[in-house]
Amino acid sequence: MWMRLHSSIRSYSAYHSNNKRTPLSFLAGCSLHNNANHINSITSPRIHLSGRRSVVAFHSTVVPIDNKSLPSDDDSPDTSTTTTTGSHQKLPQWKDMGRGGDSSRSYTKYEQLVRRLYMTNLFHPVKLGLQNINRLHELLGCPMDNERVKVIHVAGTNGKGSVSLKIARSIELSSPNNNGDIKVGLFVSPHISSFRERMSVNGVPITEQEVEEYMPRIFHLCEEFDIPATFFEITAALAFLYYKEKGVNYVVLETGLGGRLDATNIVKQPALCVITSIGLEHTRILGETIPEIAREKGGIMKSGCPVLVGPSCPHDVLRQQSVELNVSEYLTPSDIIDNIPSAEEENSNVDYDVENSHIAAAAVKIVASTSPSLKELLTDEIIQKGTSERPPCRFEELSIQNVVTTNNVKLQVILDVAHNPPAMKYLIQKLRATYPGKRYRFVVGMSADKDLGLCGRMLLDAVASGGGGPSSLHLVEATHPRAATLQAMMDAVPKLQDAHHGETISVGDQVRHALLLAAGASSAAAAGQEEEIVIVCGSVFLMADARAALGYDEPRDSNVINEVAGCNLLSGQENFGNTDPEKVLMERAARLYKQSPTTSPPADK
After folding, report:
1. Given strand 532-538, what is the order of strands in its sheet?
2. By C-alpha distance, which of 363, 337, 390, 371 is closest to 275?
3. What DSSP state is assigned to residue 541?
4. Does residue 39 sit in helix, strand or coil?
5. Can you give the pLDDT at residue 140?
6. What pLDDT score was predicted for residue 323?
7. pLDDT of residue 437
8. Residue 483 confidence (pLDDT)
């Protein structure tokens, strides 16, 4: 199938050659008319590879939006079963949002808006700074500076998403009888299967209807006041407006990238700043050394506000920065929680979640110390329950049966977004501690900016410990511009040439292939016995397709959204000015076309 990249880029070649600024109304999938029942869109653009140059074709239409265009809910039930163990007792049984691939229906307004958002960075490359988001925040009435709203701001290399969730859940659970007196907003990124996961209140994601109501207001502000906001800035502004409208008491904000110049860093007086860990990441943006990266992430600290810093941080650097920024207190989890066992005593070297839970518990106690009403409601039992939660795809354990076979063999599957060497190290240690003596089969895809060589060698060592080799690895390539190509992974570790990769680079196909091989290994050993563990790891952008292949029933954005998500992800917050978006799109199209069963690209017209 030839990849079809839907977009509303008008005269893209002219824009790119002239480098002229394009109004937001021309962006990606929706330009709102005065008539709210119509949305201007561009349908079925194709990238044509012809001769020595590529041609991008676009066709404009006006698509009516009405109830008749909404997808139906007559899905057939899936006969396969998937259950979770450990911290996740069952899979969410929400209706599937995806009805992609049906070209006979009009886009919904939600789809139009999110498509437009995803394509924003093609015209507004990210230039780190707070000018755009500060202006948007002001125009929204500075909701994050409302004295009635306590904001907890979380940054870090690893663990910041988990810590954010644990803090939010602990505070939410303190509401008496779940009566909604305490409303906790949570902002995280990136999402797994649906854009709506990025912002929630008391665990409930923003609805499609709320996106349809609030996002046009953000776009309107950008146009009216000439604000060239990026994807992440618009998303953050949407979250701020959403929390304002929902009347939240607390907001937990996870940074997107870095801290000092991150779009979430507009809060003047947070109740608490948290820095979970520091490691090498995004070195071309944040700095090439641990101290440089630490100071970027430490930029969320504010004068007169306390900061909580996890144990896996360069405390000398961050303490000095806290003095320079005049923070009120520099705290560590051991300053708040008595008798924290050593890493060896409680295996926190094996399970990173132990460390994350300590940081989150300490954060909740600090916030409660400034709020008598919250302090009275929070008990150790509530904190323990709240901090025991894990986000999806953080060593998420599944037991599946009859998803790809009918032989009743139960398979153990682990989903984990370990995407850099420190996280990969924790994943492998946790696997060895949880499933000693088992063989491992990995499905892995990475982002191009990670240490592909080190991560690849770590995975080869992991499978070798169970008697496996490169054939126990399945290499995949996520469909977004930051994905490392298969060739790049194999160039980094030549032994990976013998991994599974030639059959297909499709995430779903390789997951199913791995399950079939694992099922065969388990059947050969003893029927019904779990011998080979399947682990899907690496970039978060693999996980939606992997979860679909595993039979998850959860909110999932439609294909008409997902087909442009990769175009934006340059990467939501990482399409910097030195990125050529046209080159990225063409290279991605060529890679996907190469694996297409069609014999030729569509003819030029």
Report:
1. 81-85, 396-401, 410-416, 532-538, 439-445, 473-475
2. 363
3. G
4. strand
5. 98
6. 98
7. 86
8. 86
Close Cβ partners of 379 (under 8 Å, ≥ 6 residues apart) = none
Nearest-angstrom CA–CA distance, 268 and 252? 14
124-159 burial: b if 16+ Cβ within 10 Å, else e: bbbeeebebbbbbbebbeebbeeeebbbbbbbbbbb
The whole-angstrom separation of Cα 573 and Cα 259 is: 12
Q: Are 561 and 113 in contact (CB under 8 A)?
A: no
Look-up of token digits 């801290």: 259
Given this model, what pLDDT does residue 534 score? 96
Integer Cα distance of 184 and 195 in angstroms: 19
Helices 208-224 and 131-139 cross at an angle (nearest 10°) of 110
Find all residues with CB under 8 Å of 306, minimum gap 6, and list them.
Answer: 272, 273, 327, 328, 329, 330, 331, 366
Q: Are 321 and 278 in contact (CB under 8 A)?
A: no
d(CA 339, CA 236): 38
Say which DSSP state 447 is in.
B
Q: How far is 444 from 428, CA to CA, in rounded Å?
A: 13
DSSP string, 44-106: EEEEEEETTEEEEEEEEEEEE--GGGSPP--PPPP--EEEEETT--S---PPP---TT-TTSP
User: What residue has token string 């295996």?
Assistant: 347
Q: What are phi and psi of 11, to 5 degrees?
A: 50, 55
The pTM (predicted TM-score) of the whole model is 0.76
The β-bridge partners of 135 are none
- CB under 8 Å to 600, separation ≥6 — which residues? none
Both tokens of residue 579? 């990125």
- At a CB cut-off of 8 Å and minimum separation 6, what does 178 contact? none
What are the respective helix, strand and coil percentages of the chain, to the nearest 5? 40, 15, 40
Record the tokens describing residue 454, joined without a space.
Answer: 């080190």
Classify 273 as helix, strand or coil.
strand
Give burial (CB, 10 Å; 0-12/13-18/19+) of 61: exposed
Give the model's pLDDT for residue 38: 36
* Tokens linked to 479: 């469909």
Q: Say what the pLDDT of residue 284 is.
A: 78
Tokens 């924290």, located at residue: 340
Query: What gap in Å lies between CA 36 and CA 388, rounded to an integer?
Result: 45
Nearest to 539 by CA among 422, 431, 417: 417
Q: Which residues, listed in sequence order, are joined to residue 59 by a DSSP beta bridge?
A: 43
DSSP string, 478-493: -SSTTBPPHHHHHHHS
Give the mean pLDDT per block of 10 residues along the chain (605 residues): 34 34 34 34 31 29 32 35 38 34 73 94 73 97 96 95 97 82 94 95 97 98 95 97 97 94 96 94 84 96 98 96 98 93 60 91 97 91 95 92 75 92 90 91 91 95 91 88 88 93 81 90 54 92 91 88 66 38 48 42 34
Q: How far apart are CA 158 and CA 63, in angstroms?
A: 43
H or E segment at 201?
strand 199-201
pLDDT at 422: 84
Q: Are 331 and 309 in contact (CB under 8 A)?
A: yes
Region of residue 242 (left: phi > 0; alpha: psi -120 to 50; beta: else): alpha
